[in-house]
Write a structure and sequence with these properties.
The complex is a heterodimer. By secondary structure, chain A is of the alpha+beta class. Chain A contains 14 helices and 18 strands. Chain B has 5 domains: about 15-100, Uridine Diphospho-n-acetylenolpyruvylglucosamine Reductase, domain 2; about 105-225, Uridine Diphospho-n-acetylenolpyruvylglucosamine Reductase, domain 3, CATH 3.30.465; about 225-325, Alpha-Beta Plaits, CATH 3.30.70.2190; about 340-425, Alpha-Beta Plaits (2-Layer Sandwich); about 430-470, no CATH class. In chain B, helix 1 (about 15-25) packs antiparallel against helix 3, helix 8 packs antiparallel against helix 13 and helix 13 (about 355-370) runs antiparallel to helix 14 (about 395-415). The chains are: A alpha+beta, B alpha+beta.
Chain lengths: ~400, ~475
């Protein structure tokens, strides 16, 4: 087993029980220019460049309450340290969901999910973190508590801090509370699976699914040994997996229609999974990015980039494992050994130009030796200029105490 | 060649000559009579004439204009079609106005990857028209979509009836090209929905032109639903109608659109459009569900049952697509029709948690009674977004004063209910004073800090949105006459 249990250089861990307490601690850290590492469920602390400065761990574990759950408004306001499992259970009890498909949800916290912009397979049908967070509270690097948005689903007052903090990796503020929109749980979900040998057929199927009146909630392409058991498909070819959700009438119609449509695209023999296999397969897909291995990267392009990226990765290392949200052009690739040329060979030389062709970039999700990562190999090509990132960081955290050295700032 | 310049402006003549050189003389307005057109937008009560109006046609021209403005230390701001209802494009303190309506190309439509690239001056509905027959559309559909531009939609994070299911503008913007307040061109995001680094395209949406000038937009395209069912719920009391709204959402049904129109507005709509609205009803709901054809009748039946259970008189169905289009035309053009009801109108744009619509409606009517002001209502009900319209005669100063007080009280009631003072129109200059009621001093301080990162000398769109950015928060002496919903 590769040893990728990443440890932050933490000298002491604090567990504030109120946002006011957390603000005082950050004011102290600001005064002393002490580094602070925000901690949620610690399921993604490896996500980022290696931390080089000793500092305090700032845990949100004790900020885990449900603040307001007006069920019929389809919103919930919670403290950021609530685990996704607690949240999902509370929602399911009321027939609602936050369809983000986060791995390790027993530990992962909503604050961490927002900070890392973690999304899963159903993003195709249901959207991503930024579509759900409608209100946010955080404490910046000066110890100021600030809010954006509110508790209503439509609101354009003030700057959108919900978007600013989504994916900011705890570097602009520690998120303490969030309000999210919710969706009703669908009555039924079904999975259709088919093996696809020819990459051109795979692309044709994905293109068809993008336009399909069956409105899939997830479109996945899988490759590698570990999927065969549940999909029943040969490990040498790609497996296309489609999830439909809705009423029983809708899914029954949808699955019949899709089996025909896939056949017409050159992918005959699609089958519908049993409900047990359905559950287990989506569970495995959800957990895939979090599995420990030598190197896991994520290529994020437009949808038409998915198949070319998959094919390049298969050529690079036929023994790799791939899980792709193909409708969104997100390809997650696990390597058990780092291919020849090292991480920069994979990320910058092989996949970087291909990702650029398809308007995307490559990120390193986890690797066994994060010390060797650079901004380029960790985060890929930035979608906004460096000077603007730096200016924003300077305003929110002038002494650079929040997660120092881990994100994209120079 | 330099054209003659009207010297009735405080701008250095050398800057005007420079602007003429950059844009060409046919793209620069200097005469006071020409500039007056731009002294306000859909928020007509405050006026401030720009010193110069320019009509750039390229990003490079915008960058060069901004650099010139900076050299002369003159403020500047962008404007699209000027349909803002909150004074979002009011040139406070004058300066140079960049009107982007000549940048109206749809540059690319990519159906496979579901995006389009448009210039900021593209009128919202033109994009959907350009997509006709492809099976895709651009989802944000503000009622002003026949006039408003996508650049302006980005600035205000515009909504519309169908945002209930499909989301507002920010859910459909993937990236922008922009020019910074010091004239640098930069990209935020692009066709791919996952940015590396911060989601600054997301931050730009709804920033009301105070962070940078947007010069190009990557928008998401939405697949057309296979089927649609449009219903008209007819109610003998507004309370029953608002209870139906609350019951539909509370039952976990998210329609594509859920709109409420009360009796008085319905009468005006009927006069204007002869749709056949039931004039003896107290309120109607326009309810639309869309999606997979196979499931739509069930959803429709469920909604009809809910409406009936809370006392609907009847629920009618749009008979065909033409009928449906007529209904939406009437709804979206309610703006024009309401002009029949009174000489002066002012609307508010508050939001409450959606199940609180019934209580909020009562509060609105009580406030109307208290100030002796007639109020009619049209709500984006499914989102909790209310648009009470106050009818009055602005020649009567007492009425005017009461309308201002009533409007303030309605927005305060929205805040008290845990809502917002604006769901889709923006803060602009109109609602600056409410920012302090909605946000703490630290919130506003951090917002000012974000603005400083983008717009450090505050020369771009000064005095907008934030009280801390020097915006006046002045007491209004008269309300706006315009409405839109």
């Amino acid at each position: 087993m590769p040893d990728s249990t990443y440890q932050l250089p933490i000298t002491q861990t604090m567990e504030p029980t109120t946002v006011a307490e957390l603000a005082v601690l950050l004011q102290q850290a600001h005064a002393q220019t002490a580094a602070v590492y925000p901690l949620g469920g610690q399921t993604a602390i490896h996500y980022g460049l290696a931390a080089k400065r000793d500092g305090w761990g700032m845990s949100t574990a004790k900020l885990d309450k449900i603040i307001d759950f007006p069920v019929k408004d389809l919103t919930i306001t919670v403290e950021a340290g609530i685990t996704m499992q607690c949240l999902n259970e509370a929602l399911a009890n009321e027939g609602l969901m936050l369809p983000l498909d986060v791995p390790q949800q027993m530990h992962a916290t909503l604050g961490g999910v927002i900070s890392t912009n973690t999304n899963g397979a159903r993003r195709f049908g249901f959207g991503t973190v930024r579509d759900y967070v409608i209100g946010i509270e955080a404490v910046n690097g000066k110890g100021q508590v600030f809010h954006g948005g509110g508790r209503v689903v439509k609101n354009v007052a003030g700057y959108d801090f919900c978007k600013l903090l989504t994916g900011s990796v705890g570097t602009l503020g520690i998120i303490t509370q969030a309000t999210v929109k919710l969706k009703p749980l669908p009555e039924e979900s079904v999975t259709i699976v088919v093996g696809v040998g020819d990459p051109d057929v795979a692309e044709a199927c994905v293109a068809m699914l993008m336009e399909s009146p069956t409105v899939p909630s997830a479109i996945e392409l899988l490759y590698g040994d570990s999927w065969s058991e549940l999909t029943g498909n040969s490990k040498d070819q790609l497996t296309l997996v489609v999830q439909l959700s809705g009423t029983a009438v809708e899914t029954a119609w949808g699955q019949r229609r899709l089996i025909d449509d896939l056949k017409n695209q050159g992918a005959p023999g699609a089958s519908v999974l049993s409900s047990e296999t359905h559950f287990n397969l989506w569970q495995q897909i959800q957990e895939f990015p979090a599995e420990e291995r030598e190197l896991t990267i994520q290529v994020k392009t437009v949808s038409s980039g998915a198949v070319p990226v998959i094919e390049t990765c298969r050529t690079l290392d036929p023994s790799c494992t791939i899980q792709s949200d193909a409708g969104n052009g997100v390809v997650t690739v696990g390597f058990n050994e780092i291919p020849d040329g090292g991480i920069s060979g994979v990320v910058i030389t092989e996949l970087g130009p291909l990702a650029t062709t398809y308007h995307g970039h490559v990120e390193t999700l986890r690797c066994s030796n994060p010390e060797n990562l650079t901004i380029g190999t960790m985060w890929g090509h930035l979608a906004a200029p460096e000077w603007l990132h730096n200016r924003i960081k300077e305003q929110f955290d002038p002494r650079g105490i929040l997660n120092p050295g881990r994100f994209v700032y120079q | 060649m330099e054209s003659p310049v009207d010297l009735d402006t405080s701008i250095p003549i050398a800057l005007i000559h420079e602007l003429q050189k950059i844009i060409g003389s046919d793209g620069v307005l200097t005469a006071h009579s020409d500039r007056m057109v731009f002294e306000c937008d859909g928020f007509t009560i405050e006026k401030s004439c720009p010193d110069v109006v320019v009509f750039p046609t390229t990003t490079e021209q915008i960058a060069t204009v901004i650099k010139a403005c900076n050299r002369y230390e003159i403020p500047f701001l962008p404007r699209g079609a000027g349909t803002s209802l909150a004074g979002g494009t009011l040139p406070v303190g004058g300066g140079v106005m960049l009107v982007l309506t000549r940048m109206k190309e749809i540059e690319e439509i990519n159906l496979r990857d579901r995006y389009a690239i448009v210039q900021p001056g593209v009128v919202n509905i033109r994009l959907t028209q350009a997509l006709a027959g492809t099976g895709y559309h651009y989802a944000p559909d503000p009622s002003s979509q026949g006039a408003c531009t996508i650049g302006g939609n980005v600035a205000t994070n515009s909504g519309g009836p169908h945002t209930l299911k499909y989301g507002v503008t920010v859910n459909h913007v993937l990236g922008v090209e922009a020019v910074s307040s010091d004239g640098e061109v930069f990209l935020l995001g692009g066709p791919n929905a996952d940015p590396a680094g911060l989601d600054l395209a997301g931050v730009m949406v709804g920033s009301e032109g105070t962070l940078a000038v947007v010069t190009r937009v990557w928008v998401r395209l939405t697949r057309n639903p296979e089927g649609v069912r449009t219903m008209l719920g007819v109610f003998d009391s507004v309370d029953d109608a608002t209870n139906a709204i609350s019951a539909i959402i509370g039952a976990g049904i998210i329609p594509a659109a859920l709109e409420m129109v009360d009796h008085d507005i319905m009468v005006a709509l009927e006069e204007a459009f002869q749709f056949g609205f039931p004039l003896d009803a107290e309120a109607i709901l326009i309810i639309e569900v869309d999606g997979i054809e196979a499931g739509l009748d069930t959803q429709r039946d469920q909604i009809i049952e809910i409406c009936n259970s809370v006392g609907a008189r009847e629920v009618r169905q749009a008979e065909n697509e033409k009928h449906r289009q007529q209904l939406w035309k009437a709804r979206k053009q309610a703006f024009g029709a309401i002009g029949r009801l009174a000489s002066s109108l002012v609307t508010q744009d508050g939001v409450v948690p959606r199940t609180q619509i019934p209580q909020m409606y009562k509060t609105i009517m009580e406030i109307g009674k208290k100030y002796d002001i007639r109020i009619v209502n049209v709500f984006h009900a499914g989102d909790g977004n209310i648009h009470p319209v106050m009818l009055f005669d602005e020649r009567d100063p007492s009425q005017t004063q009461r309308v201002l007080q009533a409007g303030g009280e309605i927005l305060q009631a929205c805040l008290d209910a845990g809502g917002s003072v604006t769901g889709e129109h923006g803060i602009g200059v109109e609602k600056v004073k409410f920012m302090k009621q909605m946000f703490s001093e630290d919130d506003l301080d951090v917002m000012a800090a974000l603005r400083k990162a983008f717009n450090p000398n505050n020369r771009l769109s000064p005095d907008k949105m934030l009280p801390t950015a020097g915006a006046c928060g002045m007491e209004r002496k008269a309300p706006s006459r315009m409405v839109a919903m």
